Amino acid sequence: SLILLLTLSFIACKQNVEKSSNDVIAPNPNKEVKEKVHKIEYLNSNSFKEKVFDYTGNKEWDFKGNAPCIIDFYADWCAPCRSIAPILEELSKEYKGKINIYKVNVDTEKELAMAFNVQSIPMLLFCSMNDKPSVLRGAVPKDVIVEQINSKLLNSTNTKL
């Protein structure tokens, strides 16, 4: 009977350990949803044409977005690009609902990078609702990006006509 008791105790302990390790491994669906809300969207040529500007069909700038945006032209291998990525993540949370932040990989979207004359990266394209876009080149500090957001994207005249 002692062997039976030890065997049952061992089985019960093993099941509790398995259950608790499964709880740790299993993803929290609510956490995933919250993380997705703040993800920066990556654009390819087609999604860029739909959400920002059809650079193949128009010669004059015609912004298609529903909110001002920043487009980060970057590459995975670029250290300065990686240095501003967390800043853009923070700004996407801070300005959620006011501006959109997109990323375009210049290595995979070469035609798009050429269309916007991307010669050095990182390059940030600031697209307001009514004016032509403006450009910031290089890994600039957060306060410089915030100043551009406030002056170029969120000024009082920045509403779609």
* Fraction of residues in β-strands: 5-15%
Radius of gyration: 24 Å
Strand ordering within the main sheet: 1-3-2-4-5
- State the helix count: 6
Give the termini distance in whole angstroms: 84 Å
Percent range for helical residues?
40-55%
Q: What kind of sheet is the major sheet?
A: 5 strands, mixed
Any idea what the shape is?
A: globular
Characterise the protein shown here:
With 161 residues, the protein is an alpha/beta fold. The protein has helices spanning 2-25, 29-37, 45-51, 79-94, 110-115, 142-153; strands spanning 41-42, 69-74, 100-105, 123-127, 134-137. The protein has a 5-stranded mixed β-sheet. The relative contact order is 0.15.
Topology:
Elements: H1 2-25, H2 29-37, E1 41-42, H3 45-51, E2 69-74, H4 79-94, E3 100-105, H5 110-115, E4 123-127, E5 134-137, H6 142-153
Parallel strand pairs: 1-3, 2-3
Antiparallel strand pairs: 2-4, 4-5
Short key terms for the protein model shown above:
161 residues, alpha/beta, globular
Question: What does this entry show, briefly?
Answer:
This protein has helices at residues 2-25, 29-37, 45-51, 79-94, 110-115, 142-153, and strands at 41-42, 69-74, 100-105, 123-127, 134-137. It is of the alpha/beta class. The termini are far apart.
